[in-house]
Design a protein that fits this description.
The protein has helices at residues 15-25, 30-36, 41-54, 97-109, 114-121, 130-142, 188-192, and strands at residues 27-29, 57-59, 72-75, 111-112, 146-148, 154-156, 168-169, 174-177, 182-186. The protein has 193 residues and is of the alpha+beta class. It has 2 domains: 6-75, Winged helix-like DNA-binding domain superfamily/Winged helix DNA-binding domain (Arc Repressor Mutant, subunit A), CATH 1.10.10.10; 97-192, Orthogonal Bundle (Arc Repressor Mutant, subunit A), CATH 1.10.10. Strand 8 and strand 9 (182-186) form a beta hairpin.
């Protein structure tokens, strides 16, 4: 079953909700986390294993648990409120990193061309193509974050900065703002679906 678009999630069915529960409990079982979210147990377990493989949590030795208790983990590396983005093997998820970098670059640059945006958003391990920067800027223009000028450059509107998390362009061509949990723009194609 494909994931629901972010704007249709209720906040309790995300990895962020699992991370929030881990931070609140510090020592936990998969069942403990499952009770705090509406995610499927397998999804919760997969995320916990990814966090373990990445060194954010560690398994509590069986000798420290009461007999018959479910396996438990403890938080050993709290990196703040944003849930770590990891795969089951513990490797970082890099999808969306370019978008995050572009969002930060827009705020610093204020007025920029698509080429400027692509160049300033590149980091080691994260290449941003001009075509990707063009698509992102175009969608943020439609959503009201940017002003487009006659020379093809864009300016980020000061009032459009809603927070540190980059607005997302979903497969359905919806611009969703994770800072406000709101859909900012839907394409005509998205209306017809």
């Amino acid at each position: 079953m494909p994931l629901k678009p972010m704007h249709k999630r209720n906040g309790f069915d995300t990895r962020q909700a699992v991370w929030n529960a881990i931070r609140a409990k510090e020592v936990f079982s998969v069942q403990d986390l499952r009770e705090e979210t509406v995610m499927k147990p397998d999804s919760v377990r997969e995320y916990v294993i990814g966090l373990e493989n990445a060194g954010y949590v560690e398994r509590v030795p069986a000798k420290e648990l009461r007999q018959g208790a479910a396996p438990c983990w403890r938080l050993v590396r709290d990196v703040g409120v944003d849930a770590p983005r990891v795969r089951k093997d513990g490797s970082p998820v890099t999808q969306g990193k370019g978008r995050e970098n572009m969002w930060k670059a827009m705020r610093v640059l204020k007025t920029f061309t698509v080429r400027d945006l692509a160049i300033h958003a590149r980091t080691p391990g994260c290449e941003v193509k001009e075509s990707t920067a063009e698509e992102y800027a175009r969608h943020l223009f439609f959503a009201g974050y940017l002003q487009r000028h006659g020379d093809g450059s864009y300016t980020m509107l000061p009032s459009a900065y809603t927070g540190p998390k980059a607005p997302m362009i979903q497969r359905t061509k919806v611009v969703w703002d994770p800072n406000t949990n709101q859909v900012r723009w839907r394409s005509e194609v998205a209306h017809d679906q």
